[in-house]
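From the pipeline queue, job 12 of 40. The input is one protein chain; the requested action is below.

Action: predict structure.
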Amino acid sequence: MGGSSSKQTHLPPTSVTSNRRIVQNFLLVWLDSDIDEIKEDYHNAITHLRRIVNAINLFTDIHQCINFLNEIKNEKVFLIVSDTLGKTIVPSIHEIPQLDSIYIFCKTQTNHDQWTKQWSKIKGTFTQILLLCESLKQAAQNCDKNSISMSFVSTHDDVLKQDINQLDPSFMYTQILKEIIFEITYDQRFRKDLASYCRELYIDNNHELKNINKFEREYHCHTPIWWYTYDCCIYSMLNRALRNQEVDTIIKMGFFIQDLHRY
């Protein structure tokens, strides 16, 4: 994990996200000049990271990484960076609004306090990917909890108490969409369609693919609340879809929204 390099890293599909639809409220950027598709330790690290963040973007060049970070508008970003490149890039990116947290990842533990303590977004220095993932998972959970989503549980009386001219357009849009979803009659085909849709989004994520299979196979074995709080992609997908008003995803998850509402 050495100094800056301008080489292009050609990573296999299992290790990098390329123009795939974002389905969480966050994404991960990993900057390291030594990223190499041949090294087994990087493949193992990606596998562990994918249990938390589906969209992983790998960079070996600082300038390309900075340009990418500046283009992010809707998602929070978690950054993993080597110590050497971290000293160079952190001062330039620390104030980017979408950058949530920074993780220094090194092969050996050295004294990084002299420079890392200056930057509040740096969450620690790690030499083991599992320890880094523990910290990253907490940040991802906090990000989901802090994301504002549309409410599908407002009552008709709540609307009547407000002047129609004072209602926010997005709220009115939500009410209309909610009424449509609650009028649809769903059957098991919709669950299969959602599972197929999720498999496309998580095609390289073996951990989530197992969860998706479990969701399709065992859906009626658990309550909707159980699935909503289960450690899988459902919570993040629904949260993001409602927050960003992603109608196609909301419709696909309509049967689940219905079940949550009725439970």
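Job complete. Residues 210 and 232 are 9 Å apart (CA to CA).
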